[in-house]
Amino acid sequence: MKRNIYLKMIPLEEAVARAKNALDRQSLVGVETIAVERATGRVTAEPVIARYSSPTFHGAAMDGIAVRAASTFAAREGAPVRLAPGRDFAFVNTGNRLPDGMDAVIMIENVVMDGDTTAIEAPAAPWSHVRRIGEDIVATEMILPRHRRITPYDVGALLSCGVYDIAVYETVRIAIIPTGDEIMDFTLRPEPGPGQVVESNSMMLCALAESLGFSARRLPPVPDDPEALAAAFESALSSDVHAVVLVAGSSAGSKDFSRSTIARFGEVLVHGVSAMPGKPSILGVCRGKLAVGAPGYPVSAVVCFEELLSPVCAWLGRAAPTCRQTIPVRLARAMPSRLGLVEFVRLAVGRVGETYVGLPLGRGAGMMTTLTKAQAVTRIPADAEGVEAGKMVRAELLVESDDLDRTLVAVGSHDNTLDILADMLMRQDEPVRLASSHVGSMGGLTALKSGAALLAGSHLFDPETGDFNFPFLAKHLPGMDLVAVNLALRHQGFIVAPGNPKGIRGVAELARPGVRFVNRQKGAGTRILFDHHLRAAGVDPGQVAGYGHEEFTHMAVAVNVQTGAADCGMGVYSAAKALSLDFLPVARERYDLIIPRAYLDDPKIQAVLAVIGTDEFKARVAALGGYETQLTGRFMAPGMGLGE
Amino acid sequence: MKRNIYLKMIPLEEAVARAKNALDRQSLVGVETIAVERATGRVTAEPVIARYSSPTFHGAAMDGIAVRAASTFAAREGAPVRLAPGRDFAFVNTGNRLPDGMDAVIMIENVVMDGDTTAIEAPAAPWSHVRRIGEDIVATEMILPRHRRITPYDVGALLSCGVYDIAVYETVRIAIIPTGDEIMDFTLRPEPGPGQVVESNSMMLCALAESLGFSARRLPPVPDDPEALAAAFESALSSDVHAVVLVAGSSAGSKDFSRSTIARFGEVLVHGVSAMPGKPSILGVCRGKLAVGAPGYPVSAVVCFEELLSPVCAWLGRAAPTCRQTIPVRLARAMPSRLGLVEFVRLAVGRVGETYVGLPLGRGAGMMTTLTKAQAVTRIPADAEGVEAGKMVRAELLVESDDLDRTLVAVGSHDNTLDILADMLMRQDEPVRLASSHVGSMGGLTALKSGAALLAGSHLFDPETGDFNFPFLAKHLPGMDLVAVNLALRHQGFIVAPGNPKGIRGVAELARPGVRFVNRQKGAGTRILFDHHLRAAGVDPGQVAGYGHEEFTHMAVAVNVQTGAADCGMGVYSAAKALSLDFLPVARERYDLIIPRAYLDDPKIQAVLAVIGTDEFKARVAALGGYETQLTGRFMAPGMGLGE
Prior knowledge:
2 copies of one chain form a homodimer. Chain A is built from 17 helices and 37 strands. Chain A is an alpha/beta fold. Chain A folds into 5 domains: 12-27 and 172-317, 3-Layer(aba) Sandwich (Molybdenum Cofactor Biosythetic Enzyme, Chain A), CATH 3.40.980.10; 31-54 and 135-169, Molybdopterin biosynthesis moea protein, domain 2; 59-131, Beta Complex (Molybdopterin biosynthesis moeA protein, domain 3), CATH 2.170.190; 326-399, Beta-clip (Beta Barrel), CATH 2.40.340.10; 433-636, Periplasmic binding protein-like II (D-Maltodextrin-Binding Protein, domain 2), CATH 3.40.190. In chain A, the strands form 10 sheets. In chain A, strands 27, 28, 29, 32, 33, 34, 35, 36 and 37 form a 9-stranded mixed beta sheet that branches. In chain A, strands 16-13-17-21-20-18 form a 6-stranded mixed beta sheet, sandwiched between helices. At the A-B interface, strand 11, helix 3, strand 15, helix 4 and helix 8 of A face strand 11, helix 3, strand 15, helix 4 and helix 8 of B.
């Protein structure tokens, strides 16, 4: 089987430079003349000269009367100067032209009428309250330089000085071609079956391109066939675009034909960048146009787009490359990394006290939820071997900074009720965004300890006392003043396929050959519960097939059972119900929100407490199935157990 | 004449709150279902639930072979485990589904083939290099909460989990009606004559609205006639918009009908806000829709739009209000302000050393160039009476922060050659934006002294020594290590109307009755030159009509003469030539760029020095007329004078 060999991986900056050096933007991206009213966001191709002055006359800056300043110089309080209409003064409104010879305006508030005449009690300084000719714009002056992205303000200035048409660079046009045998075309609204994937990268990249000021066109998907790819690529190349992107097929796999396709019609400049995700990115030049091979994994495709295609296309269009606001972020968890690669890590970020705290989201290049859930992204430099927990890093904001102040980062155990809470928090007049990092109950407590979160979800059962959470708080977070507010009681048990075909009745069956288990990650309350039951039943974890297969959420456990990848996993009833699976109850447990008392007054925490106290919240939770809400919203105390 | 009485001015926040309280957004802004591929930038009306999981199968995360992990546990270096194709392993590419029963992937780089079989020398951990079912998205989970502005990333996630349509709030639609007797309709591409103004606010506000995510429609202008305004307003109100804006006519002038128009069809909630510019803003509710009376001055209209209309319309559409990045800026000049008003001041900002330094641009509410030239805007709170020079303020960025690092703030004397320099600097591969603050030569030196600028333009003539600039540097900036680089020699003189109708032959004529002078501001090199010649001729400034009429640029002086508002002003030949005026030479002078030696290595300064050394620059300067370039680009020394 033929496989591609990577070129040596090169840094992103070098890759961008190679592409720029190989492209002749002067020839590639032309200039067009358009109406100024349509020019917002376009880039000027020439300096723009004012055709008319603004103002074109001396005008009143205030409502009042226009006068000759000299005629008022003798005016004093108690010794007014009388002015006659027409000869000495004229009423003017803001913006009116001053009559010839008049060179000052007295504000109407200071005008006392006596019949037709007026009595002025203070001198008017020359040019007071007058907008003078040319004080703003003078004809023949340069209004805008070239290579300037036109703003709405610029549109106003241009029209006001008589510029109605403007020479701008063409908008950079990009064709995006999704490739692959296994993908389904989203425009057909397919219903994916087992093993099938709905292709979405192409549309995501189109939308990304448009948001960056380019113009993008998504072409129909092409299978992993060299001839079909060549035909589609050449067709796009021959059209009026400036760049063509092949999505997927850029790696070293046997079906990766992007490189050979690009090489067929031009020259491959870059195959491989020292960045993760995004490594197998390809840049080339074909017939004077930019060619890009974007990796198939969504996050990799995004990095390829944002770090390679975007700066090159901005340069083509003579626009400054987009830059995001950066903020200092304290890392709540260590981020490992490899030497020699720049690693892009997306973060959930919220404000805790005076600091922004960041929780790294997953690194998987295929994890679309890291793209949708992240508030920021940081880069670990190539010369670093990871970053320790607690360190400050600079992160690029993916949302507006105001958003962060409205973002509540919840760390800890995942529960489906958090989705309900998140939805109701967004409905408020002052919406709060709930960003969740699912690291398990113990991970949540650790985050509280290090000051990395305002609240943590936890459902840790202590068999010795029969109590929930408090024994763990006392042991692991001694000295911290914490409260526990109940979110719900929930039913935990074994999730099995409908009809329970493997006949699982309890923990003992899990050691049977042919029964495949799917576990939760270490530190999850559900894992702790399961291990407790294993021990109680005298079952050795080594006898349980799949004990090492760890998932991070109830839903992931459930879907493993649903698809037959596993026969059984421990999880909450609502997860089983959601996927129409059977459920064998094992225990009821208390899921609490652990909150440092010092943060109880935080408006975001107040919002959470308000929401979970409502009847609506309880009703929606109850409707999920497998929850009881009699303790919901109440502050717990040590020893309360299930409150019965 | 009837004039409006203002309501009591209220703070911006209270004005926004009043409007929100009076609007029923639930009824006003509806929900529509659109295709996900068109949903970027729209706001979700409901939480969005995943229809399919992603991935829907265990898939290979790397190219390689899929195996049963357990079958490899005995593998050791030197004691390999042999696996047979089909039975024990299968080749997989990234993204391929793992065959049933297989639960690990060995990377292709680690696979050694021996004929058809492979020899594995290290055990594969279960689930290594496997993308597991549901690790990203699981069906029934919430992908997006409600009231979320959809990003390109979200579009990708939605399509990948089978969501093809989405319920979003309507885009908020705004009708914008320009009003006024004196305005000209830009869509007709008019050529304004004396006293006429091309109306441009309406288009600027339309473009602003679109850039904020709203939809805006500009309607034809309506004259200052109550019946015509009522008809246009009611017609817009009856259309399918959510808000109607009347532009101009919101003050207390006799032609200000916005308030009465709005009152006629609904209720005026706000007339007057405690902000400057923007004070005479009006908010109302008419037939359940938002009504806005925007002031006629461009900067006032912008403040009304950004501080009142925008937050209310964002709230209508359930979107978070737009917020800009803020940066700390050191004020180079004091900003006076009045108690009781929030004052918005636009700033030219550049980086000087480690700090951002800001120069306040003009305060005039009609100054469109403050809108086009500002990099940031700051607010002086209502309880402040100005801000002292040197103080740090927080300013909202109007450009991207990278832009500031590429912005060179030039303070001092204005010259038309700066436009040429600005244009050539933008043409570079690494463009430099030249932001100029015209405060005159002395103002420029003051800015250098306070560390507020990297370079200053100066042409100060010292009659005692016959030298330029250095005597002033020695006197006012002793101890600073500065260099002077010549930009050009230029011809100064009296600018008069074509044919010199008033027969002005020299300074003495300026004292003649009927001759109106237009002066330059104190501190300008041209003003100093003029005062020198007055003194030399023994003419008392008090005898010169118009001596107190001060303009800030050569072009402003020239346009006063062109329009007949003055008969004569002192300025450079190129300004006279630009407006086809006559010119009486008085002196040649040296216009230098004064630069602290410490900044000579700054890349932006280096760019300036490179540009002014080119033949192209000298040729373009020479073409303006009235310049000599034999010293251009050369470093000056004390005593050089004109270099002859």
